[in-house]
Automatic annotation (TrEMBL), chains A, B:
Domain HTH merR-type: 8-76
InterPro entries, A to Z: DNA-bd_dom_put_sf (IPR009061), MerR-type_HTH_dom (IPR000551), MerR_fam (IPR047057), Redox-sen_tscrpt-act_SoxR (IPR010211)
Tagged with keyword Electron transport: no
Domain of life: Bacteria
Family annotation (Pfam families): MerR_1 (PF13411)
One of the protein's GO biological processes: response to oxidative stress
Signal peptide: none
Protein name: MerR family redox-sensitive transcriptional activator SoxR
Amino acid sequence: MALSRNDLIPIGVLSRRTGLAVSAIRYYEDRGLVTSIRTGGNQRRFLRSDIRRLSFVQIAQKLGLGLADIARELAALPQGRTPNVMDWQRISRSLRKEIDSRIQLLTRTRNKLDECIGCGCLSLERCALYNKDDRAAAGGTGPRYVLD
Amino acid sequence: MALSRNDLIPIGVLSRRTGLAVSAIRYYEDRGLVTSIRTGGNQRRFLRSDIRRLSFVQIAQKLGLGLADIARELAALPQGRTPNVMDWQRISRSLRKEIDSRIQLLTRTRNKLDECIGCGCLSLERCALYNKDDRAAAGGTGPRYVLD
DNA sequence: CTGCAACCTCAAGTAAACTTGAGGTCAAGC
DNA sequence: GCTTGACCTCAAGTTTACTTGAGGTTGCAG
């Protein structure tokens, strides 16, 4: 069955449904994150499913991904056609992996920080004194211990 | 006891110890994140404890805080004087709260996402159909459910 | 006391992610 | 059939967080 007229929405509607500014959506189109077709009068018409697509963009952004990374993720979705359930499941799982690894990183950071709260040392400089003969002195004493 | 000469380090040393570029440190000073005193020849001299201070900056940045937020956090530390253990404990705990809340947010996002992977729906549009008569339809269908 | 790495300032450039403004067109309801 | 809100393009501006470059000074090792 062909697309029904209802599946095509103007940019203002997409904006309201996603909470994104119209200018942001146009910018995303420039960056290749969404595609639109044009009416006779040169106005953009988006697929209803682009609401979901832009929702994904927003979530991924909250995770700290740049627009280029997000575009790469979105490449797994069909271009200009409504993605099906399987498409979304695949990409959602990939996002979940991102989230999981971020939680792990934060948890590690928190543990490190906990260890150091006890001695009031953030850079582990002091701790390095206790763990004598460590690699810390050799490598410097930045936050590289706490950070990844 | 007064400061010994050894407690004052030039910017290059601070750079090596923190992994930050010299230019970045100067920029941070402009933004009020660190303070320095000057030699007769107008060169910056930092406290050794500024290594720790800048380590904190880097960790907080990884958490997504902007420099302005970080400056606010750092306001709890004494200006231009070596902070003591208690100072660092207080501020580390505040950072820990940040981390905890970020982990919670991510966990919530993950759970929401899991719920939706099942139906391939990211914006919860489809789920909204199942939960008939919901507030979802009223509020629109952006990712606001998943995002904070 | 000299050489040169390390330091200084200040202006301008960069990248990401948008927004704003000017100047103009489209389309849907009355 | 006209008005008006929604839409269009393109250039320039904004913010954050720095880096780069030019042109000059300092300070320590030998």
